[in-house]
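User: Please predict structures.

Assistant: First:
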Amino acid sequence: MALFRRSKKQTTPNDGEATPTEPTQQRTPDDSTADSGSLWTRVRQGLKKTRDVLRTDIRDIFKSEGQLVDEEFLNRLFAILVKTDMGARPAAEIRDNIESKFSGRVIEFEEALAEIRNHLKDILAQPPQPVRFADSGPTVILVVGVNGSGKTTSIAKLTNYFQSQGKKVVLGAADTFRAAAVEQLIIWSERLGAEIVTGEANSDPASVAHRTVATALEQNADICIVDTAGRLQTQTNLMKQLEKIFRVMSKQIPDAPHEVFLVLDATAGQNGVSQAKGFSEAANCTGIILSKLDGTAKGGVIIPIRQEFEIPVLFVGQGEQAEDLAQFDADAFVSGLIEEEVS
């Protein structure tokens, strides 16, 4: 049976997540994320690795007066673009666009960057859309992602995000096979003052999900966020588990879950593409949270994911504080990939 409890523990085993520290409608924009401008400044710093590849490596294939667009130039440009983790398809499209416009002519460095910038903005373009709220009753959000992706910490950040809007949040620790994940979410719930529903170790995740939705209904909560197991390598079992969770939720609230958020580790590189494929097939993901966007991340992996699966990027996270979450901004993201630092 699921338990309603408050843990007295203040630390958890390190299991790939940050230990908590003290502090069916159209999507609509919301600017309530705390200090999002400051976070985007840090996100920009986190994209330095990719920015250096794009600016420095591409600069190296240019002469001071520009560069003739020939086969050698196009091949070198393509190889550099692939190094950013953007994938072969977007890199090839950028190369082909430049070839069609400049073949046999001289292209300047800034012209090449402009072509890259415009194409990436086209791929990442999406309307402002943080969350689709239910017309009435709790909005149910299922959160998926591989173990160690930053999933639990991202749930805490989402909780803080909604609480900053005055919404009541109920959490469900349905990753019952990982004690560390449950304990960590309990600690976050204490920090943030959110109710949490847990279950016995190795108990049925769908039972925890059912009780979490029931609690959200009983308490007239605005938001219900349910964590799930992240063992993508056993995708058949994962799909069966998720199907059961979907089924028990929809019996309580017909449209639940209203959102399925996939947490992707920005440092995962091309592994992020396979994760997006697996979870999009298993869970019909409606949005992506890009986590751990720091100096070790290339960041470009979100480009092929957005292009191939058409899942909108809703939030970016960096850091270990509950406030370290910002609504995704395509222009700011591409600027961080391309533009030089401004003094």
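Second:
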Amino acid sequence: MTRRVARIRRILALLGLLGAFYGIPLMVVTAQPPTTPPEPVRPPGAAVEPAGDETPLPVTILPQPARTDMWRQIRRGEAGYVPLPDELAGLAIQSEGEVWRNFRNGPYKAYAGWYLAFVVAGLAIFYVLRGRIRLDRPPTGIRIERFSFLERFTHWLTAVCFVVLGLSGLNIVYGRDLLMPILGKETFAPIAMWGKLAHNYLAFGFILGLALMFVQWVWFNLPTRADLVWLLRGGGLFGGGHPPAGKFNAGQKLIFWVVILGGLSLSLSGLQLLFPYEFRFFDGTFRFLNDWFGTDLPTGLTPLAEQQLATLWHGIVGIFMIGVILAHIYIGTLGMEGAFDAMWEGEVDLEWAREHHGLWVEALERRGALPQPAE
């Protein structure tokens, strides 16, 4: 019994000694006042190279007071240092993106919608007031070739591709607001997906059609003196009768150049969207305009700003061309008798050709290329 009590006393004495060894330093440390936080963690001196007279911004992982100048630089889109090859990774905030989004979801969609509604309403009113343009005299029954097979193939290749591109593009802009509430998400989603795929791939068919169209028809669409007469008479709306025209009248020539130049612009901006950050067309264009015309367009655009401008320009030009092509479709179908046969069958009646393209018929007569009537 005496041995057991002695053993217990030795254990308690050992515990007390350990408590004194660890407890007293802990009490001293706890009783000391708090020290100031350490300095912010900074990168090595060679990691940040200040531009000009600017001082490098501190990199810290600890809470810091507000730095107004630092956030002002970030808000202006000044990129910081990042150890990555992607130059966009150092851009914390791109303020132009907010401007782009507000314009695209606001004035862009509103004005584009009003423009298309105005075109459709104008064509409907014109049809009611003017009616269909018919021949002044009965057809002769003599058919002459208006367009060859290659010309018709080029036209329909370009036309079909543009229709699909136009519808799928309108779906990208307005589909979520107009179609999805009607069709539902489950139906709208595959339509949007396949439309986007068709938009991407048929763009190359449209580019091919533009190239073929330019090669075959550019010589017939150069301006002449007869075009001025045609325009002054409004294509026959003023002065009575049909003004003289070659293979293409002034109205068709205007549509041709709108399609060629607008299609070229659409193709370039579309390639910039298909292959992001590979092309920078706007910065070079703005520099050219500033040098030659004294404009003050922004230069030194970031790759992201280039993409944002490409989306807006692609949509604006596309909407404008849709309105022009709607007028072209109207004239080629409801607006003029016999116009659709010219591009569908490739042949027109001789009387139709004389009334609408008299100068072209005269050129055929001089070459002896007109068929002779049967005895």
